[in-house]
Write a structure and sequence with these properties.
Length: about 70
């Protein structure tokens, strides 16, 4: 068996309106597959009720743990 690529999505923020763009923070962005990004993109379209809108997703590393954030 190969190595399992596990990751967690920490949070996602909308950074742009036209085109709709989201920034997704993950523990290991290199482990997030293209098929999973496509799944998220399609879920956003379905939830917004616009099946043909362009949705751009950018995945970045979440550098700090939630407990270590600045307050």
């Amino acid at each position: 068996q190969g190595r399992v690529n596990k990751f967690k999505l920490k949070y996602m923020v909308q950074t742009q309106v036209n085109p709709v763009k989201f920034l997704v923070f993950a523990t290991r962005p290199e482990a997030v597959t293209d098929s999973y990004i496509s799944y998220i993109r399609n879920r956003i379209r379905a939830d917004l009720g616009y099946p043909e809108i362009p949705v751009v997703l950018e995945v970045k590393s979440s550098r700090r743990k939630w407990e270590q954030r600045e307050r």
